[in-house]
Design a protein that fits this description.
alpha+beta, Arc Repressor Mutant, subunit A, Chorismate lyase, two-stranded antiparallel ribbon, 10 strands, 29% helix
Length: 238
């Protein structure tokens, strides 16, 4: 069986990345340099690079080139419902939470739709960045019904809101509905995250319910795309 030239280039470069010969954050040679190295056309090289990008090995960044991603990304569970504090214990990395904005608001039409709220409802708005190994790589935008959580403080938000709700208020958090999308970075991402040149971000939208099925929280959790992989376990039912 014959192998396409672009596929053999892809396999060779992917193997070098997997083995650590080419390391995360390295810049691959340009298309011109690779075409000379492999004695092939730029179009063939471009196909190989596109395949590397599709499989999570590189990210093409304007002005930089093809940046090698960390293939040992931090694992974030898709189906679990855990706080960042709980998740931090499994990451094996230095973590810190910084609260940038905190207070009560009345919901705009977008939040009214997401939370099924009324315009005169009071909503806690918390904007937090999550620092991992010295880099701010997650931006969490939390919106919580005050009627469900009457009191919050910045100190609680810096520690764990879920721990406070369950241990101090004695409420039980039941389940969440999640939506995953990739979006262009916003001004807030630019302001609060270390983007490292990336112009897109992975957004996880969470609709979180108490055990009695009351919707009490809407969250947009914005992750720098080179730092995480989202994992799940699925069992086939018959």
């Amino acid at each position: 069986m014959t192998t396409n030239k672009y596929d053999s280039i892809y396999q060779e470069l992917a193997k070098k990345i997997d083995q650590g010969i080419v390391k995360a954050e390295d810049i691959l040679p340009s298309e011109n340099e690779l075409s000379l190295q492999y004695e092939t056309s730029r179009e063939t090289v471009r196909k190989a690079l596109n395949l590397l990008a599709q499989n999570g090995y590189i990210q093409k960044i304007r002005g930089k080139g093809s940046v090698v991603l960390n293939v040992e990304k931090m694992r974030f569970p898709v189906s679990g419902l855990v706080s960042f504090k709980e998740l931090s214990k499994t990451l094996g990395r230095r973590t810190c939470t910084k609260v940038h904005e905190f207070g009560l608001i009345h919901p705009d039409p977008y939040l009214c739709k997401q939370l099924k709220a009324e315009p005169d409802d009071e909503i806690w708005r918390i904007i937090r960045s999550r620092e991992i190994n010295g880099e701010h790589v997650i931006l969490d935008k939390d919106y919580i019904y005050r009627k469900c959580v009457p009191m919050l403080t910045q100190e609680i938000c810096e520690n764990s809101i879920y721990e406070y709700i369950e241990d101090e208020l004695g409420m039980k958090i039941g389940f969440a509905q999640k939506e995953f999308v990739v979006e262009a970075c916003t001004d807030e991402d630019e302001k609060y995250l270390d983007r490292n040149g990336f112009d897109h971000i992975v957004v996880v939208r969470n609709f979180v319910f108490l055990e009695d099925a009351t919707l009490f929280q809407y969250t947009e959790s914005r992750h720098r795309l080179d730092k995480f992989r989202f994992v799940d376990f699925a069992r086939r039912g018959r």
